[in-house]
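Entry:
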Amino acid sequence: MNRQEENILFEKIRAGDEKAFETLFRQYYPQLCMYATQILKNASAAEEIVQELFVRLWEKRKETEIESSLKNYLFRAVKNHCLNFIKHNQIKIEHSQKILAEKEPYSAEYDFESQTELFRKIEESISELPEKRQEIFRLSRQEGLKYREIAEKMNISIKTVETQMGLAIKTLREKLKDFLIIF
């Protein structure tokens, strides 16, 4: 896809054309996932970052200004999100280590209780999601289906699956943020 085609495609996306957005997604999603996986060495996290990028791009399509080519913009955005992810994880690890150092000696009983409470809280948070969002989330995370497979199974667009997963992840992060900081 040359730069002129990219500009035309992005203008359609800015105007709310979902088919143009799906074209962009299909064109770059696999490449962006591979690129993010090379940086993070974690395919699941890479896929989540790329999905969130596309959700954010759709949500902010009218405000987004692309000065270079669309392809360069997407790859640079993925790189930046990956670096932020690495930084954020390093901060969480350092914080967790600090908390653990301040805690009393390791207790298997405490660890088991904490994990049980974490799993209960996660399940409770998932079950509070709207019904369709919950179903999409469970199909993705618990059954391991790809977005395309979920879209086909539920007879909805891949874009809808992306959006609903992005919203589910955002909601769960918010609900579990205080609880997960310990882990």
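The chain has eight helices and no strands.
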